Amino acid sequence: MIFVVHRIDAPGKSAERTRLRAAHIDYLKAFEDRILAAGPYCDPETGEDRGSMFLIECDTLAQARAFAQDDPFTGAGIFSDLQVWEWTRRMGSLAFSPKG
Fold first, then answer.
1. Where does the YCII-related domain lie (predicted)?
2. CA distance 62 to 98
3. What is the pLDDT of residues 84-99, one digit of tens each?
């Protein structure tokens, strides 16, 4: 199954996000084979990260929630909103070239 992990940063967490970025990336490496797409939401004026979205393959909703909860960013309280939903593709393709 595919799940969406949607996270919005709490105000004033940019420095904490920067401090924990290496630990966050290390954590994600363990899930590289299951992450279909991932990236930050960016503030259109400043370009700063303001949250993020993941499409991840997991067997259960509980596994997807654990993925989201165990991220160092989550443990540090960076997010004001964190939601996990099962997702079904109805249109489009996931076969696209990553940017950046």
1. 1-88
2. 28
3. 999 988 887 766 555 5
Cα–Cα distances (Å) from 24 to 36, 76, 90, in that order, read 17, 11, 31
Going along the chain from its start, the domains and CATH numbers come out as 2-87 (3.30.70.1060)
Single pTM value for the model:
0.86
Q: Which residues of the chain have pLDDT under 70?
A: 94-100
Contacts by residues 13-19 (CB-CB < 8 Å, ≥ 24 positions apart)? 13/77, 13/78, 14/48, 14/49, 16/76, 16/77, 16/78, 17/49, 17/73, 17/78
DSSP 32-81: TTTEEEEEEEE-TTT--EEEEEEEEE-SSHHHHHHHHHHSHHHHTT-EEE
